[in-house]
Specification:
231 residues; binds pyridoxal-5'-phosphate
């Protein structure tokens, strides 16, 4: 079942790439596995998926432990509380949701402690909707955060992540993706060889994200089916 879903999603991404003139190899899939069991993750791995995204630290750490026999890459995509930065730096290879300087500094210090020779891959989370409750850094403040994060030697800054506000009118969502892509290109100049990741697009809008330049799609429902828990 998951195998067929994954095949279908890969075909849909191919179609989206073709219609926007993009190379199919330029878009990767991150399987969002929050609420999914280790057994489900194993099945996804058997179908060729190696990158998994989690939102809840405790839940993730348990699965990372149970699946340590597989060569998986774990991405943290949830909101970051400062008391969780040690676990993030210790167990994950990627963190997509840095939105303030103090979190970047804490992750850097913890990574120095746990993996001194292996920098943590990070993205800065953009909040382009000007919603105050939402996590993410505004377009106005992103440059300062980027400059701060880039000088932290145990972090490798890969790009931006964004989640546009859901809207029944997809042109608003598209506009959010477009703005993120614009910033991604703009800051390539102060980026470096590692600046290669635009993490955007979820189950409902990934085709639009591909058209606007996403390089990493975060997909849960279309791969695993609807989530049954409250989250
Ligand atoms: C849950 C989640 C996803 C996946 O959502 P789907 O709609 O199930 O594809 C992607 N990104 C983030 C940040 C999430 O929290």
């Amino acid at each position: 079942m998951i195998h067929e879903q994954i095949q279908m999603v890969h075909r849909a991404i191919e179609v989206a790439c073709d219609s926007s003139g993009r190379d199919n190899g330029s878009v990767r899939v991150l399987a969002v596995s929050k609420t999914r069991s280790s057994a489900e993750i194993r099945l996804a791995y058997d179908s060729g998926i190696e990158n998994f995204g989690e939102n809840y630290v405790q839940e993730a750490v348990q699965k990372i432990h149970e699946l340590r026999d597989l060569p998986l890459t774990w991405h943290y995509i949830g909101g970051i509380q400062s008391n969780k930065t040690k676990d993030l730096a210790r167990y994950f290879q990627w963190v997509h949701s840095i939105d303030r300087a103090n979190i970047a500094s804490r992750l850097n210090a913890a990574r120095a402690e746990f993996r001194p020779n292996n920098p943590l891959n990070v993205c800065l989370q953009l909040n382009l909707d000007e919603e105050v409750q939402k996590s993410g850094v505004s377009a106005r403040d992103v440059e300062e955060l980027l400059r701060h994060t880039k000088q932290l030697t145990h972090l490798r800054v890969r790009g931006f992540m964004t989640i546009p506000k859901p809207n029944a009118d997809s042109s608003f969502v598209q506009e959010g993706f477009r703005q993120a892509a614009e910033l991604f290109r703009k800051y390539r100049d102060i980026g470096d060889d590692n600046w290669d990741t635009l993490s955007m697009g979820m189950s409902n809008d990934f085709a639009i994200a591909v058209a606007e330049g996403a390089t990493l799609l975060r997909l849960g429902t279309v791969l695993f089916g609807p989530r049954v828990s409250l989250q």
